[in-house]
Design goal:
The chain has about 240 residues and is α/β, with parallel strands linked by helices. It is about 35% helix and about 20% strand. Strands 1-10-9-6-2-3-5 form a seven-stranded parallel β-sheet, with helices on both faces. Strand 2, helix 2 and strand 3 form a beta-alpha-beta unit. The protein is globular, with a radius of gyration of 17 Å.
Length: about 240
Amino acid sequence: MTPPLITDRFDLVTYRDPDDWIEKSAAEMAAALAEGIAENGRTRMLLSGGSTPAPVYQALAELDLAWDRVEVSLADERWLSPQDRDSNAWLVNEHLLKRTEGVHFDPLVRIGKPLAECVYAANLQANHSQPPSLVVLGMGNDGHTASLFPGSRDLPRVVESTLPYAALDATGCPGANQWPLRITLTPRGLALSRHRLLLLRGAQKLEVLRHALDNNDPQQYPILNAINLPGARLRVHWCA
């Protein structure tokens, strides 16, 4: 059995039942969005890809929200067309956008535009939109979050960036698989969000978090860039 992780550096919510994890995670997301709508008339959230959050997005789509007042974009993206099944845009569309009415979606990759121009457009959009009510993150077994990969030659530059988004080349980083070119939120961009949620499944992910806290080196464990940010505390929803 995985021993409990005790820390005062983030809020950890654990579940034994995966269905409960899905339901409660979606409910927390919906509450953050409803809060943003109540305060500003509209709300914005940034989502991550991967198989872990997909059922949570499906559950969120079933909840009663003013979806025509919700703007969605991404925490990061592979350098792929939004229509590519391996893109985060495709996953979010399949599991959330198709199931709701009236949501506005801003992809990070614009078809026909070079990478630098897509990053410029992402920063322009971020700087001219209201700050996100919610960012949903995942974490790889290498400790990466968004597309902040340990060992990337671009990681120090991206971490120090004063812009919300940056391009990153993760060539040679195993966690990037066959998609080394990325657009990713920077810590600066993540800091803009009012609520930060990390969705995790499995004992190995809890061990990675434990090692990250013990090591305390954000270059080796980039998830620390989300944990150590000032402002809203990171909320971690974990289920075995």
